[in-house]
User: Which sequence fits this backbone?
């Protein structure tokens, strides 16, 4: 995995690049409609979301995944076809085995351990941020609505890799943790390596929306994001252990380095694949009342939800939502071109472990 560093000249793009592509649309546009969105979805099974963003691991109980997907976008649509938008996004996906999460939480809280207890550990991490340009086209014909898009973006905050090993409780207060590690990063969070520069990335992805209005009372929609998505990183710092290293002192004191042998290097060109995400919805309406079945799949698993609501005479519509996988309740409201969503599993922010927040115009 680890190669030699490269001194070749890097290339990138910024606002000027966007403007060059954006100007022809503005010049030829006869009918421009603006659209935009902000959305944030976060799932943290072992602890509240604010713990995931702050003192990670202190409240671990059980669970095997944490992830955040956030996106802000602003663009214009020419008529009902061509779309051009600028966006910023962030994605983090962390997966681990449930036994390791429980044991790690007990260690962080200084709870008594059971001597002789052996816990296998397997962790994978994947994350980045990005900002760039999306160009798409939408076609409406009969009862069909099809939208295709492609994105090009500059990426930052690379983190990807795996950790695997074993934790062993030696006494009620003491434990050992031996693990192998292979990862790339923008900052070495495990070994504290300092002689690195932040890698530069260029990414691309596709998206698809396919909707079918079967008749006046039934509509089906399928959406896919990050199709064929990948990021090419230049000069990515990397570390790989040559033998299992000891991490117990590192956990107890963040200033302590792991004990063991590892190799450090820089990968001239590293490709990071992005998992696609899918959403499905089936909406039924009878006059002012409506119902909905929804599903989504991402990061190796999926879950489903249901909803129902009412549309008032002035066009304002409200829908109540329930996602049983995480006991989430929420509301979705629509008025004209505006749409807002708020879904939570708890009303106390300090306890929220699953949330979805969004506001959109022109979608």
Assistant:
């Amino acid at each position: 995995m680890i190669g030699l560093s490269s001194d070749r000249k890097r290339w990138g793009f910024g606002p000027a690049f966007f403007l060059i592509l954006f100007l022809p649309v503005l010049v030829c546009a006869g009918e421009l409609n603006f659209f935009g969105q902000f959305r944030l979805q976060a799932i943290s099974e072992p602890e509240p979301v604010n713990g995931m963003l702050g003192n990670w691991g202190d409240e671990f109980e059980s669970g095997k995944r944490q992830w955040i997907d956030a996106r802000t976008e602003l663009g214009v649509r020419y008529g009902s076809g061509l779309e051009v938008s600028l966006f910023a996004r962030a994605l983090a996906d962390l997966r681990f085995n449930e036994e390791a999460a429980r044991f790690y939480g007990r260690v962080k809280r200084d709870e008594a351990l059971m001597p002789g207890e052996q816990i296998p550990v397997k962790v994978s991490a994947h994350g980045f941020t990005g900002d760039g340009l999306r160009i798409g086209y939408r076609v409406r014909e009969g009862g069909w609505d099809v939208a295709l898009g492609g994105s090009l973006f500059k990426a930052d905050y690379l983190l990807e890799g795996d950790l695997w090993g074993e934790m062993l409780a030696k006494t009620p207060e003491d434990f050992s943790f031996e693990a192998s590690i292979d990862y790339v990063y923008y900052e070495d969070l495990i070994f504290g390596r300092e002689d690195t520069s932040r890698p530069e990335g260029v990414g691309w992805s596709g998206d698809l929306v396919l909707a079918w209005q079967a008749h006046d009372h039934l509509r089906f929609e399928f959406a896919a994001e990050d199709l064929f998505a990948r990021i090419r990183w230049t000069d990515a710092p990397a570390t790989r252990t040559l033998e299992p290293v000891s991490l117990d002192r590192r956990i107890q004191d963040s200033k302590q380095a792991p004990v063991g042998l590892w190799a450090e290097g820089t990968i001239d060109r590293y490709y990071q694949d992005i998992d696609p995400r899918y959403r499905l919805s089936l909406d039924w309406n009878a006059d002012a009342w409506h119902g909905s079945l929804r599903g989504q799949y991402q990061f190796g698993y999926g879950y489903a939800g249901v909803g129902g609501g009412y549309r008032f005479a002035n066009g304002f519509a409200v829908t109540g939502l329930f996602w049983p996988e995480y006991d989430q309740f929420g509301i979705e409201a629509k008025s004209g071109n505006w749409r807002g969503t708020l879904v939570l599993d708890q009303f106390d922010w300090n306890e929220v472990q699953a949330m979805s927040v969004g506001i959109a115009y022109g979608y």
Notes: The CA atoms of residues 31 and 137 lie 15 Å apart.
